[in-house]
UniProtKB/TrEMBL annotation:
Topological relation to the membrane, as annotated: Multi-pass membrane protein
Biological classification of the source: Bacteria, Bacillati, Bacillota, Bacilli, Bacillales
GO MF, one example: phosphoprotein phosphatase activity
Localization terms from the record: Cell membrane
Keyword tags: ATP-binding, Kinase, Membrane, Nucleotide-binding, Phosphoprotein, Transferase, Transmembrane, Transmembrane helix, Two-component regulatory system
Taxonomic source organism: Cohnella faecalis
Catalytic activity entry: ATP + protein L-histidine = ADP + protein N-phospho-L-histidine
Residue spans crossing the bilayer: 213-232, 239-266, 278-296, 308-326, 332-350, 362-384, 390-408
Annotated EC: 2.7.13.3
Record GO biological process: cellular response to phosphate starvation
PROSITE patterns associated with the record: HIS_KIN (PS50109), PROKAR_LIPOPROTEIN (PS51257)
GO cellular component: plasma membrane
Protein name, per record: histidine kinase
Annotated ranges, domain Histidine kinase: 469-692
Length: 693
């Protein structure tokens, strides 16, 4: 099972690796201009001959070559005419043909296109031109970014790639671009200006936008994903720094090139965008170095991490506070920071690779690719190399490699967790049987203890009641017997007739005491639940016949009409499980109590019925006597409750009959209650469960 899990995990990792490599390959190949031909005409002396160019076969083309250039250092300075290579920054062209060209100033680029007559819509794709410009075609101003002026006070910088559409009916098109730069370290046209038919340029623009949006979206998704991982598990600091790296790189990628973020948020002007770009560049280097430092702490010293923190903080404050021209002129500091700490990271990863650290090889590959893009951009931004801005793609490659490292670590952690889980399962299987046995023993012991506890509580309660009852109801008759015996002993009662009467009275008291003691003992046993019932299954119809036979002949002697019946045939066939002899005691107590308080000519009715759902039997015993006083109803089943309180009779038993009745009914799982009837008299109601057939 473990071997199968390892093979499956390896297959998953290989599949992820192939997907990542394919995705990165698509990104890199998408950056190339497949429409660009290998050879195309170049401008010479400010003139470009396109008469032999086929837009259908050759496609779009860059307007590269030698343009006419008019240089103005300021409004008051004399204009200087010369030729200049496009693309290229004018400040970087320091030779005999371009002596004394400063990075800040105003210049006019001119190019004449010679072509065959065409009536199709043409388009020019303008790149980011530093830092404000106007495009004039055949004497008409067709595009302006910012406000280009001959003085710094007159210039408002702005950068963003644009497409210009135009039509020309003749054989010649004059292009003039007026560029002003007083806010950036370099001025001029860094990347090619592309010319083509409208549909071709729109396709090129869509390709650029699509690729940059893919890079931007991918970085944002990876960053948000790892930020979520960090929030779920704060101990994994590598997830936080990788998330910050992705988000900072995404921020910079969205500000340069097509300017996705600037397009979405028009209120971000050129200066704010440039400050954010430089800060994001430094912060991305810092978060990347911190990420690798947390991933391979033994190969990255704390001093290097502290130095990186201090430098990035200083560069960020420097960029946020100073004017754009100042911090852009210090681009070499940012580049040196990225290069030095990139090399230090490369050295640390090489050491990690030799020490066989987990994921070190992939991190080394990513860092090597990233350093190559840094070198490319340093050459590109300084005008020493004609290329593209590849740092976002290099960072994306580095991030993908490191994300894959985290994926490998997570997968291996999951695999180790599976092994541990399997081992724990084996231990659990061994212990499960013993635990189940022990649990069952404890459950039985607990049930036994619980039953014993309940029994002891009932016995203790019965004992207290018995002692209380003895002291309550035996004291008076014993005192009377003691008085009679003392009278006989002392000769107070000496007449034979009075002596015989006293002896008979004493015998009656002794018999009453015997009955009371028997009732007390029976009630105590019932309350302690120490009675074993001899249950018999009997139908309600048979029970009705039994009661009618027992009391049918006796009741007429009491001049009381006795009725005993079942409510329906269904009720008559219902069965209950009862101890018949003890239930006879219940009905004897209830019926004789009813006879005692029912006037002559009255009626006592016993009715057997069944609930609608067939779950319980309902037995009622009613009379038409005087009823029970409402204040006495809650206490009718209490010990020693005398009926004469409510039915104003001086005779009565021990007061334990109804208490015994209640205990017997509850011992059968039933309930007994009593109510006064509206037409007079009272009714006792018993509810017993129906026996399962």
């Amino acid at each position: 099972m473990h071997r199968y899990n390892g093979v499956r995990m390896g297959a998953v990792l290989l599949h992820r690796w192939l997907l990542l490599v394919m995705a990165f390959g698509i990104l890199l190949t998408g950056c190339s201009f497949k429409e660009e031909p290998r050879s195309y005409p170049k401008a010479q002396n400010g003139r470009l001959d396109l008469t032999d160019w086929s837009w259908e076969k050759g496609g779009i083309m860059p307007l590269d070559g030698e343009w006419s250039f008019e240089w103005h250092e300021s409004r008051s300075a004399d204009a200087r005419e010369m030729k200049i290579e496009v693309p290229g920054m004018w400040g970087a062209m320091r030779d005999d043909r371009h002596p004394g060209l400063k990075d800040q100033g105003f210049g006019i680029y001119r190019l004449t296109l010679v072509h065959l007559p065409t009536y199709e819509i043409m388009a020019i794709r303008l790149p980011n031109i530093s830092t404000a410009y106007s495009l004039i075609i055949n004497g008409y101003r067709v595009m302006t970014k910012g406000i280009p002026g001959m003085e710094a006070e007159e210039t408002i910088p702005s950068q963003k790639p644009e497409i210009v559409f135009y039509m020309t009916k003749g054989r010649q098109t004059d292009i003039e671009i007026r560029v002003a730069n007083f806010d950036h370290r370099n001025g001029g046209i860094r990347t090619p200006i592309i010319l083509g038919k409208a549909k071709q340029i729109e396709k090129l623009q869509a390709s650029h936008s699509r690729m940059e949006f893919i890079v931007f979206g991918s970085l944002c998704m990876i960053g948000i994903y790892h930020l979520g991982l960090y929030l779920l598990r704060r101990k994994e600091g590598t997830n936080l720094f990788l998330a910050l790296l992705c988000l900072f790189v995404a921020l910079r990628a969205g500000l340069i090139g097509e300017g996705v973020i600037v397009q979405w948020f028009p209120f971000i002007d050129w200066q704010i965008a440039t400050k954010l770009e430089y800060i994001a560049f430094a912060a991305a280097g810092w978060s990347g170095f911190a990420f690798l430092g947390h991933m391979f702490p033994r190969e990255f010293g704390k001093r290097w991490l502290q130095a990186s923190n201090a430098l990035v903080l200083s560069l960020s404050v420097f960029t946020a506070v100073l004017p754009t021209l100042w911090f852009t002129s210090c681009l070499v500091v940012f580049q040196l920071y990225a290069l030095v700490f990139g090399l230090r990271a490369l050295i640390g990863l090489i050491a990690s690779t030799f020490r066989n650290r987990e994921g070190a090889k992939l991190a080394l590959i990513g860092m090597a690719g990233f350093l190559l893009t840094i070198v490319n951009d340093i050459l590109f931004y300084n005008g020493w190399w004609r290329s593209l801005d590849l740092v976002p793609f290099g960072l994306l490659f580095l991030i993908v490699m490191n994300a894959f490292i985290i994926s490998i670590r997570s997968s291996r952690t999951f695999e180790r967790a599976e092994h541990l889980s399997a081992e724990l399962k084996e231990w659990n299987d061994r212990l499960e049987g013993r635990i189940a046995e022990r649990t069952e023993e404890l459950r039985h012991s607990y049930m036994t203890l619980e039953e014993a506890k309940i029994g002891l509580e009932r016995m203790e309660q019965s004992r207290r009641h018995l002692v209380s009852n003895i002291s309550h109801d035996l004291r008076t008759p014993i005192t009377l017997l003691q008085g009679y015996l003392e009278a006989l002993r002392d000769g107070v009662i000496d007449e034979p007739e009075r002596r015989d009467a006293t002896i008979r009275l004493m015998l009656g008291k002794v018999e009453g005491l015997g009955r009371l003691i028997q009732d007390l003992f029976e009630l105590s046993v019932l309350e302690a639940r120490r009675v074993e019932l001899s249950l018999e299954t009997i139908t309600l119809g048979e029970w009705t016949e039994r009661l009618a036979e027992q009391y049918g002949l006796e009741m007429p002697e009491s001049e009381v009409d006795f009725r005993c019946e079942t409510a329906s045939l269904d009720a008559a066939s219902a069965t209950v499980s009862v101890d018949v002899h003890r239930m006879d005691r219940v009905f004897a107590n209830l019926i004789y109590n009813a006879v005692r308080y029912t006037p002559k000519g009255g009626t006592i009715a016993v009715k057997f019925d069944m609930e609608e759902d067939g779950s319980h039997a309902l037995i009622s015993l009613s009379d038409n006597g005087s009823g029970i006083h409402p204040d006495d109803l809650p206490h009718i089943f209490d010990r020693f409750y005398k009926k004469d309180k409510s039915r104003h009779s001086s005779s009565g038993g021990s007061g334990l009959g109804l208490s015994i009745t209640k205990e017997i009914v509850e011992l059968h799982g039933g309930v007994i209650t009593v109510v006064n009837l509206p037409e007079g008299g009272s009714e006792f109601r018993i509810r017993l469960p129906i026996a399962a057939v």
